Amino acid sequence: MWYSLNIYNDENEKFENELNITEYLASFWNPESVKKIKQDRNLKKENDEISAEEFIKTNNEAYVENESLINAISLMRKLQEEAKNNAGSSSINLNKLIKDKF
Fold it and tell me: How far apart are CA 31 and CA 25, in angstroms?
């Protein structure tokens, strides 16, 4: 684990160094664009980091939005299992099962 973490950190450091060299060379041709790109990248980094509370809130909102779909899928799987157990090896028509229940 420690070894793979160090490899990951080394790769990130190498990427940052190469990026800095590229920006340095590009600044000779178009310094305004390089400044703008750096500012945009820094804004994205700042906006990418969210607090744990924000993550939990977003996760809960997404669950509430999809709760009815999750319940429908759970019910469909339950009905499918019941039909399998009752029918033995015969084929199962999920559309018929859904229409019967809803």
Answer: 9
Range of the domain at 86: 50-102
CB of 83 closer than 8 Å to CB of 92: yes
Quote the CA–CA distance of 51 and 13 in Å, as a whole number: 25
The C-alpha angle with vertex 17 and arms to 12 and 21, in degrees rounded to 5, equals 150
Residue 5 is classified by DSSP as H
Same domain flag for 41 and 76:
no
- For the segment 14-33, what is each residue's pLDDT rounded down to a tens digit? 999 998 899 898 989 888 98
Answer yes or no: pTM beyond 0.90.
no
Neighbours of 40 (CB within 10 A): 10
